């Protein structure tokens, strides 16, 4: 007997299945109608939501029944931000509902941590906002030729080595081009810079907790006759006098790796440049070998006081091969990161296939605690220089960036000891975005 349903007369008389989306229609609420439950409008605990919902819509199903507005509110609230932005094109009522401050505030409360902001390899005209699964939420127009600067703010910073730097507000679309002050000005650390010198510029964007001021730190590494000098200055965005200008801030006590910078709270940290340190003439390696003394290898810049200081790295007291571990930690195998508001030294101990994450618990006493020791065999190559933890999720997983021009993003699950790569394009640089997502639709086209 044939099982082909097209031969069944009764099957042919059945109506074709209807799409839930195509069958839905938007119906505005009119006072006195039964579209909004009286309990919702009368409830004092839901008065804020009711005041919004009463002025919006309900959805009629294909059976002629009506979806209560509070149910619609909660359904839309649970959707990914990208889908909500798409649904705003359905009708004016959905656009108005999802643009209400009450809805946006509720959506922010549900948002699990900051978003990832990434520059994809081969796309120099945009930066991309993604969730922790790698799903692109927004594509933000950027400045072509400028690379993404790592940050953790509601702003996006892009810059190049020549000294050009811009700050983008993804909400308004406003772009602030910072002045590219010529380095030959003599107040740059009192080191006159000539056209024959090679100058490399790096930038970091941070915010002062006590005042809310956003500041950009600029480090210029000057190479002259195979010797290096560092020049630093800082600029305050939206300064009180309305004039953006760079202010000299001295320099760190040692040459730092300008790629290692990270902002933690209202301070900027850089790891020393291991091509220059330790100095063999000072026998610093011998001191480490004999008594475990760790040199100050991290430069700290206070964004509020605008002063440089230094701190030491973790002190290793246990183990039979402390010397080997120190040599690896203080070399090119370490990077700096921020997790849970702490400075983190990420040591890619490749000879042992371990990624050790040291948390700075007390800045005053330089107390470091190794909270993670991650087995990385067959996941992180031994030659990988940039291994930077980005985010510690609520479920305990750690988002890690492996940068090798181009790089990739991985999620590490400590409970199952499993790495999983995010399904994204190749990544050149990453940071974190802490601003609102749904308020971006006025400035950015949804892709």
From TrEMBL:
Reading the lineage from the top rank, the first entry is Eukaryota
> Which residue intervals define the domain F-box in the entry?
61-111
The gene name on file is ga20901
Question: What's the protein name?
Answer: F-box domain-containing protein
Pfam families registered for this protein in UniProt: F-box, FBA_3
| Alphabetical list of SUPFAM superfamilies matching this protein | F-box domain (SSF81383)
Q: Which InterPro entries match?
A: F-box-assoc_dom_typ3, F-box-like_dom_sf, F-box_dom
Q: Where is this region: Disordered?
A: 1-24
Q: Which PROSITE patterns match?
A: FBOX
- Composition bias, kind Basic and acidic residues: at what positions? 1-13
Classification lineage: Eukaryota, Viridiplantae, Streptophyta, Embryophyta, Tracheophyta
